[in-house]
Specification:
Elements lengths: L1 H19 L4 H8 L8 H23 L8 E3 L7 H17 L3 H8 L4 H23 L8 E3 L5
Antiparallel strand pairs: 1-2
Length: about 150
């Protein structure tokens, strides 16, 4: 059952990305161009996504355990460190340069977008490089803490 739920969640997410226009790099770049040909429509999509996530987390965490079993995986670290800041900067620069972020890029593969294919290859290469650098790092990355509750 979890794999079916995962598939359905991914499918709904992809459909949402397509309907909102987030798989169209031009639309994203126009949203980011606040001094030029600005398209504010993605701001509504982002506001609805943030509100939905906030409400969803509130309900999900109140359950104590996930609906389909296991335990919640939440980050153990909550501070902003150089690694987080540099990763966010790289993400933002990449998004601003090409108009793709990981979810929409993967969804774009389904419609045969060549630019998305190149982006996904570069993203996978970047992930491999980051893992290699982590392996060389002196300080290990903190594991995620699980939350398993009993208030049902």
């Amino acid at each position: 059952m979890p794999i079916i739920a995962t598939f359905i969640a991914g499918l709904l997410f992809s459909i949402g990305l397509i309907v909102s226009g987030l798989i169209n790099p031009t639309k994203v770049l126009n949203f980011l161009d606040v001094a030029g040909n600005w398209d504010p429509s993605l701001a509504i999509t982002m506001a609805v996504a943030v509100a939905t996530t906030a409400i969803g987390y509130r309900f999900a965490l109140a359950r104590g355990t996930p609906l389909l079993g296991g335990m919640f995986q939440l980050p153990a670290k909550t501070d902003i460190d150089p690694r987080l800041a540099s990763g966010a900067a790289i993400f933002g620069i990449g998004w601003g340069l090409v108009g793709f972020c990981p979810g929409p890029a993967v969804a774009s593969l389904g419609v045969g977008a060549n630019a998305a294919f190149i982006f996904v290859l570069a993203m996978l290469a970047g992930m491999a490089i980051a893992r290699s650098l982590d392996a060389l790092s002196v300080t290990p990355v903190a594991p995620q803490a699980g939350i398993k509750g009993g208030n049902k």
